[in-house]
């Protein structure tokens, strides 16, 4: 029986579906906020003040944050600009793919109804030799996880 090794977290790509394909637009350095949790409602137990019942209400998803080196002529950045500046909100599906050694997807998280809520650029500093980093924040309704 072969030993199992967890996949590495640094080999992934992000695709915004419905935008023209560009090899540079799938390259991000960081993805955070891919999480879900069950929201609950607390109800005091009648006649027994020592206890509180907790009931599930709905699933909640945090906003996704994508970071990468500033990319000029990006279809994703243009989509962000249209949504935020022009208020032309166009929800898209987003796929986050964790890749294996052959660059094939191991797992895919499929985000539904995603649209940008924030774009930011890291500090510009003449005394620092760092790369310009842009951050994109996306709201999404839900996600599913698919094994490839």
Automatic annotation (TrEMBL):
One of its GO terms (molecular function) is structural molecule activity. It holds the Pfam family Phage_T4_gp19. The lineage of its organism: Bacteria, Pseudomonadati, Thermodesulfobacteriota, Desulfuromonadia, Geobacterales. It comes from the Bacteria. InterPro entries: CHP02241, Phage_T4_Gp19. This is Phage tail tube protein gp19, putative. Signal peptide: none annotated.
């Amino acid at each position: 029986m072969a030993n199992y090794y967890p996949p590495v977290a640094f080999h992934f790509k992000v695709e915004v579906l419905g935008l023209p394909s560009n090899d540079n637009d799938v390259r991000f350095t960081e993805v955070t906020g891919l999480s879900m949790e069950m929201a609950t409602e607390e109800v005091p137990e009648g006649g027994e003040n020592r206890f509180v019942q907790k009931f599930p209400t709905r699933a909640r998803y945090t906003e996704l944050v994508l970071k990468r080196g500033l990319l000029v002529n990006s279809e994703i950045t243009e989509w962000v600009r249209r949504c935020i500046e022009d208020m032309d909100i166009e929800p898209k599906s987003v796929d986050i793919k964790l890749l294996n050694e052959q660059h094939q997807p191991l797992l895919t998280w499929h985000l539904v109804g995603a649209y940008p809520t924030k774009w930011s650029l890291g500090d510009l500093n003449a005394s620092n030799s760092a790369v310009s980093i842009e951050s994109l924040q996306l709201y999404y309704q839900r996600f599913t996880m698919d094994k490839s």
